[in-house]
Amino acid sequence: MWKFHGIQKPKKKMKRNIKIKVSFYLKSTSKTLQRKAIYANIRFAGKQKQFATGLFCEDPDVEWERGGFVGRRRKEEQAEMLNIINTIETFDPFHFRDIDQIWDQYNGEGVQHVDSTILGALEWALEQKQKDSDFKENTYRNNNSAVNSFKSFIDSNNKINSNFSLIRKNPRQMFMRNSMDFRDYLLEKENTKTTIHARFTCLKALYNKYYKFHNDMIDDLILNPFKGIVEQEKPETRRERALKRAIPWHFIEKIEKISFLDKKQEQYRAMAMFQAYTGISWKDFGKKDVLNVTQTINGKSLIGKRAKSSQDYFIDLSLAQDHVDYLKLVGIPFEPFVDDSLRHIKNLTLKSEYEMQQYNSFLSEILSPKIGLDDGIRLTSHRFRHTFAMTALNVWKIDIQDVAKMMGDKIETVLATYADLSQDNVLERQRNCFDSYVKSVNS
Prior knowledge:
- This protein has three domains: 21-113, no CATH class; 118-233, no CATH class; 242-435, Orthogonal Bundle (hpI Integrase, Chain A).
- The chain is 49% helix and 11% strand.
- The protein is built from 16 helices and eight strands.
- It has helices spanning 60-63, 75-89, 99-107, 118-131, 137-156, 176-188, 193-214, 235-245, 249-257, 263-278, 321-330, 349-371, 381-394, 400-407, 411-417, 423-442, and strands at residues 21-28, 36-44, 47-57, 64-65, 68-69, 293-296, 299-305, 312-316.
- It has a three-stranded antiparallel beta sheet with strand order 1-2-3, with helices on one face. The chain has a three-stranded antiparallel beta sheet with strand order 6-7-8.
- A hairpin with a 2-residue loop joins strand 4 (64-65) and strand 5 (68-69).
- Helix 14 (400-407) crosses helix 15.
- It is elongated, with a radius of gyration of 32 Å.
- The termini are far apart.
């Protein structure tokens, strides 16, 4: 015998057939006049609300039938009534808590000035990002990619997902479980943990911006639904990943010894060596002044601002001088795509992405086999930046503040990402300092 003790009945699913309906009726304005006013009636979730349309029916017996005008004489009034219906009935019913909110929306009061859906909030915040004084093209692109990923998540299953409401107790309110579903969706699409973390970081920041400016305008606005879904990556995990991205320095020495007959391939090889010796990023290749050399009392240097962070960098050219001279002679094989304000030049964003793909294709498909790099490692522009940072800190023993200045990064970023704080490295650095002190005392 089957026993059902302790099994609870499943909760009834929320009905999804909630609709907003509009109808019209006549109301007498005078005991003596035949003319009657036309009122509209809104019905929603068991409630009704009536309002005067400002229209009149002069001869109800002839012109009015079943809640509307008949005949061709009242085309203008029919059009106005149809406009009322089309306006109100096309509101998304799942974005309203009660009939009063629908009334406010129709009258242009309260919530109608603010899109209280999740996509509306994210897109509003994106627009504001473009207006910010500290606008950065790369940051905007990352935020836009995150929003597009969430749109794709909604489109992947419209029966379950939707443009969720941000109002508490709304029938289509967004919950944290919806964000968890989004996280699982990204995992199924084989996004890496790093990418997923970046997506949630962007969406969390965008919603925070929306919440800050609308919390006093919208009652019962939900808290950030993207917060706490993806755990903050541990510093040691980040460093471990950076170590994996770096390639052993003897591969850089191999690249130094080879050459290509094809001019563009040789240009790409020089760019790779330039990156390996300076840590310069891909986006900085898009600047017109990336190869401008400054003569200092200590030798030739590159002094400029990093395109991504707008932070100053100072790079000694002792190792990279030959490659800089070559690139100045033959040129970088594409036009600049970053303007003097360190933003992508309008209409060149896609072109720069194509150029990066071409460069990375050369690195992974042509250069990697040439130097015998393992098949499992995909050589990219960013790997050279990681390789430089790891080598400068942990092999050449350059001070961390100097490496940060060379890379145009904050010291905290370099420390968290590249510094190998293993026991051996820490003790070796201490021993070198003590040895230097002893030598200075005994000399």
